[in-house]
Amino acid sequence: MNKFIATYQGHLGKAACIAALASVHPVSAVELPTLPDNFHVVYRLSPSTPAPKAEVDLLLGLAGLPSPQGLGQTVGVTATVSRIFGKEQFVVNPLRPTNFFSLDQSNRAMSFSRDLKRYEGDFEPVLPDEDEAEQIAKEYLTENELMPELRQEEAMVTAAVQTVAGARPAVKGRAPGKDDQPVAFDKLKVLTFTRKINGLPVVGPGSKIVVTLGDGGDVEGLIHRWRSFTPPVTTAAKSARSSTKATTRLPETITPQAALTGMKARLATQFPNKSDAQREAMIQDMDLAYYDSNVGAIQPVYVFRLDLGSNIAGPSPTTGPREDYVTFAPYLKVAPEAIYVFGDLPNSPAPRAQTQPN
After folding, report:
1. Model confidence at 240, in pLDDT bands (50, 70, 90)?
2. pTM for this one?
3. Contact (Cβ atoms closer than 8 angstroms) between residue 331 and residue 254
4. Most exposed: 193, 213, 222, 305, by fewest CB within 10 Å?
5. Angular region, 121: left φ>0, alpha ψ -120 to 50, beta rest
6. What topology is assigned to 109-170+179-226 in CATH?
């Protein structure tokens, strides 16, 4: 089973084992991943063409915004403000800040949120259950031609179903002995869909669709960063020993052991006051995935799950709260695109890495 997408209970069990061992002596329980065939393949993202005005107007309609006729011009009863940042168009309803639309014409990354004013206060919506929510979201994507067309080697999976919580103030006499306790309930349901290629998760900015559902299953928001890719091509290179005959040569790769050694070296640079055993215990998991930059390629990478919080807070990996951090390292020696790896910015706090899929 892929450890990176293991169940939360499984991670808790592993964390408990690591903590128990580290209380005696910090140890690393990292297992080197097994490399599948053709893991070296790079999937090139299909070129994006600018969305025509008719399509933009349709997307604006889904966001509950009229098509802007000019900067700040009143259209119907709503005044929308449109801005262009490079190739990104941003439209917002200044009277309702939650009501916006964004489209990047360079890669078709799109997001919107409808007016959420009705969810303010103690309004308690009727939300669909998880199965209904997934069905509603997929039907919505299909009806609006936003559902990805999948190739044989890929799949779209439901990575997470989360809720946005709200609270209703307590009412005197509502419940005996609980008059001063607010009543919590769910305001919105958020579904995250991600991609798998050859059974491995795809991480990074791309290959994500996030659908926000509200009262009665209404779609209140959407993030769509999913591009198709072209069939992989195996390149042929001339052998260094022969100038007349071309031979197929696979790209040079980084072995799991070399990648693990490299991550330990980065930790040694970032935490010079820790012992080797303590730094090694920071590495909780190592696995394989593909990284979608949403720019030009989907490439194979190593995934490391680090526990930074407990090591920063105290002298041993069992002191202080846990702070899981996920970072990536390239598998190809000559990567098609640069990716951020923990420690790339010495003497600066590392930014929060994305952790999808959960």
Report:
1. very low
2. 0.77
3. yes
4. 305
5. left
6. Nuclear Transport Factor 2; Chain: A, (3.10.450)
